[in-house]
Design goal:
Blueprint lengths: L9 H19 L9 H6 L8 E5 L7 H4 L7 E5 L7 H12 L5 E7 L3 H9 L8 H5 L2 H7 L5 H19 L1 H8 L4 E7 L6 E3 L2
Parallel strand pairs: 1-2, 1-3, 3-4
Antiparallel strand pairs: 4-5
This protein binds zinc ion (ZN).
């Protein structure tokens, strides 16, 4: 993992290292997060200083605070089915970048994602429901073709989400160019509990 963390701004590297260590605590069944009580919340009642933004699927099995061993006030989490980006999701992340100055954005795809399954089944049709979600996933199939493995589909989609954000958000693009934020593309494995960085 060490080599993967090269070429990352120091502040983001520190936070990413901390979160990956937290993930190891989760895997080992030895969580250490302490900031989970009312006292913590009260100390943060009037402000927040999260050190990372996480874009995660809404999937009930993917809970960023638990899998990264974090407590209250640490992560600014944006959750949407299939990490399907659109204007509201983009602006939520922009808020974390511009107003909260988080140095790290984690895009967290995962195994067995229902959105990838559904998109693979429906493509290229556009059914009556879930259109905005499908529209943010279909471009991956447009470019690569249908996937035999939905987990590989999810990984490729996570990479696509980064490009979407860079192409559609001046705030995020400039923050990346100025080393104000690092975008870590990650994937969560349900069998091992491990979060791995993908490229
Ligand atoms: Zn999902």
């Amino acid at each position: 993992m060490g080599a993967v963390l090269n070429n990352i701004p120091d502040i983001a590297k520190e936070e990413l290292t901390k979160l990956l260590k937290g993930n190891k605590n989760f895997i080992a069944g030895k969580p250490t997060a302490k900031n989970m009580c009312l006292k913590t919340l009260q100390s943060l009642a009037l402000y927040q200083e999260p050190y990372a933004c996480v874009l995660s699927c809404s999937d009930s099995r993917v809970v960023p605070e638990i899998i990264f061993d974090c407590g209250i006030g640490e992560l600014f989490v944006v959750r949407v089915a299939g990490i399907a980006v659109g204007p509201n999701v983009k602006e939520s992340i922009e808020y974390a970048v511009k107003k909260l100055h988080v140095p790290l954005l984690i895009l967290l795809g995962h195994d067995d994602c229902g959105v990838m399954k559904y998109a693979n089944e429906q493509y290229p049709n556009m059914p009556e429901h879930f259109q905005s979600i499908l529209k943010s996933v279909y471009p991956v199939i447009d470019g690569i073709g249908k996937f035999d493995c939905n987990n590989e589909f999810a990984r490729k989609h996570t990479l696509w989400v980064e490009q979407y954000l860079l192409n559609n958000s001046t705030i995020i693009k400039e923050a990346v160019e100025n080393d104000k934020i690092y975008i870590a593309k990650c994937h969560f494995n349900h069998n091992t509990g491990e979060v791995t960085i993908i490229n």
